[in-house]
UniProtKB/TrEMBL annotation:
This is STAR4 protein. It comes from Smithornis capensis. PROSITE patterns: START. GO terms for biological process: cholesterol import; cholesterol transport involved in cholesterol storage; intracellular cholesterol transport. Residues 29-207 form the START domain. InterPro entries: StarD4, START-like_dom_sf, START_lipid-bd_dom. GO terms for molecular function: cholesterol binding; cholesterol transfer activity. It comes from the Eukaryota. GO terms for cellular component: cytosol; endoplasmic reticulum.
Length: 207
């Protein structure tokens, strides 16, 4: 089992990577899915052979409350239909931890349940927040799960300038599900999962 990394340089590198993704020009993205709640684009990932996905939508709530629902903590399991369990394995400081979580099977179980161990970090960004993560090769893989791997991922949440009670939520996700999977099934699942994430989050914030 690999030891846990030093959190400070990892957090700094992770933040810089996400800010770089956030600066990628519109012309490099290809539309993958559009719903009333969110738009999803993708481009080839620099990290692995799959795609980096970008999702964006306006959420009717204040930045802090939205990010509290996304980052590791009690809210996330309540509303995220894809997540089936979550444990905080290590806490470095209030905004920085290592978590292990599991996800449900997808696409009629073509994609079997997955387990991830992620380093998670939340920090300020402009007038809002950035909550980001990356998988670690840490801990024993539990039986009945395939261990997936999240390359640098994150969510930027900033208040709308003309309407601060609403926030623009922009996510960057690149998940390597691993295991024997047709790439087309993975790509279909990712676009739909990201769009559903917004609709589920909006419902949760209204309750």
């Amino acid at each position: 089992m690999d030891p846990l990394p030093d959190p400070a340089p990892l957090a700094s590198k992770l933040r810089n990577t996400l800010v770089r993704y956030h600066g990628i020009g519109d012309g490099e993205w290809r539309l993958a899915k559009k719903t009333k709640d969110a738009t999803v684009w993708r481009k080839p990932s620099e990290e692995f052979s799959g795609y980096l996905y970008k999702a964006q939508g306006v959420v009717e709530d204040v930045t802090n409350r939205i990010v509290d629902h996304i980052r590791p903590g009690p809210f996330r399991l309540d509303w995220d239909s894809l997540m089936t369990s979550m444990d905080i394995m290590e806490t470095f400081e209030e905004n920085c931890c290592v978590m292990r979580y599991t996800t449900a099977g997808q696409l009629w179980n073509i994609i079997a349940p997955r387990e991830f161990v992620d380093f998670s970090y939340t920090t300020g960004y402009e007038d809002g927040l950035l909550t980001c993560g990356i998988s670690l090769e840490y801990g024993e893989v539990r039986p009945n799960f395939v261990r997936g791997f999240n390359h640098p991922c994150g969510w930027f949440c900033v208040p709308l300038k003309d309407c601060p009670t609403h926030s623009l939520l922009t996510g960057y996700i690149q998940t390597e599900l691993r295991g024997m999977l047709p790439q087309s099934a993975v790509d279909t699942a990712m676009s739909s999962t990201l769009a559903n994430f917004y609709s589920d989050l909006k419902k949760a914030l209204k309750t």
